[in-house]
């Protein structure tokens, strides 16, 4: 992604466009490039913001879904954000839900795609083959319906993360926190409009997860994308944007 990463206080973020704020929360292995097509499309109508989550920089006690949600709250306060359309993929969706449960007054809508929070098949809680490039490539390919989406640049990025011992420990800690922090009993408290956009072939948060979110979130709508895995906004961006645009338009103003 060619967008400038801005710095303000202790925060790093991308911000493009003008209009109602659309805040994007990335997942454990979520590079900014994952959102490129989404930003290109919605910067025409929205103020699109991607805070870079401090996955590897929090203290041991703060390295959790709750710790990341507190960071998002501090970012909102710093940027004076209100009436936000919040979108999260994978762990980012989970963090967004925890944040929305505590601060619903700041949120206008929530969009979830491949979100954790109920159940997920991760890269695994340990990395017994973390030095094995082919193993990491195969695991990365499982994110997508079309394995070719996992190009060398993406695999190299995942490989470098999990072969850094400190980063690998943080990833494992966050993955375990996500598994422990099940939101099943709390989701009915979220009355905000929620758009669920799910890959029909997601193997990490399978279709049954989307159906359970839809059942538990009282004001939700569920949209399926066929031949699509865990990151629809990256794998089939045109279809994803075609679903998201009317949802945001419906709740504008």
UniProtKB/TrEMBL annotation:
Gene3D superfamilies, sorted: alpha/beta hydrolase (3.40.50.1820)
Domain of life, per the record? Bacteria
- The answer to whether the entry has keyword Hydrolase is yes
Describe the location of the AB hydrolase-1 domain by residue ranges.
21-129, 185-235
The protein's UniProt keywords, in alphabetical order, are: Hydrolase
Q: Which Pfam families match?
A: Abhydrolase_1
Q: Which SUPFAM superfamilies match?
A: alpha/beta-Hydrolases (SSF53474)
Q: Which InterPro entries match?
A: AB_hydrolase_1, AB_hydrolase_fold, AB_hydrolase_sf
Q: Which GO terms describe its molecular function?
A: hydrolase activity
Q: Does the keyword Hydrolase apply?
A: yes
The record ties this protein, via PANTHER family, to: HYDROLASE, PUTATIVE (AFU_ORTHOLOGUE AFUA_2G14860)-RELATED, MONOACYLGLYCEROL LIPASE
Name of this protein: Alpha/beta hydrolase
């Amino acid at each position: 992604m060619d967008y400038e990463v801005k710095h303000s206080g202790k925060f790093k973020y991308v911000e493009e466009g003008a209009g109602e704020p659309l805040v994007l929360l990335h997942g454990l292995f979520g590079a900014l490039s994952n959102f490129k097509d989404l930003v290109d499309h919605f910067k025409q109508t929205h103020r699109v913001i991607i805070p870079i989550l401090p996955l590897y920089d929090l203290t041991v006690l703060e390295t959790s879904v709750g710790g990341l949600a507190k960071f998002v709250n501090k970012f909102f306060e710093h940027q004076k954000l209100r009436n936000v359309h919040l979108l999260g993929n994978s762990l980012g969706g989970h963090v967004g839900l925890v944040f929305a449960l505590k601060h619903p007054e700041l949120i206008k809508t929530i969009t979830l795609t491949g979100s954790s929070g109920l159940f997920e098949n991760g890269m695994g809680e340990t990395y017994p083959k973390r030095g094995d490039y082919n193993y990491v490539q195969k695991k990365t390919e499982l994110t997508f319906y079309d394995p070719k989406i996992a190009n060398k640049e993406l695999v190299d990025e995942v490989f470098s993360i999990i072969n850094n011992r400190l980063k690998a420990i943080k990833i494992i800690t966050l993955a375990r926190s996500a598994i422990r922090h099940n939101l099943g009993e709390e989701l009915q408290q979220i009355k905000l409009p929620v758009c669920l956009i799910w890959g029909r072939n997601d193997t990490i948060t399978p279709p049954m997860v989307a159906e359970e979110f839809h059942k538990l979130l009282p004001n939700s709508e569920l949209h399926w994308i066929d031949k699509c895995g865990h990151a629809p906004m990256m794998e089939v961006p045109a279809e994803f944007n075609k679903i998201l645009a009317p949802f945001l338009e419906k709740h504008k103003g």
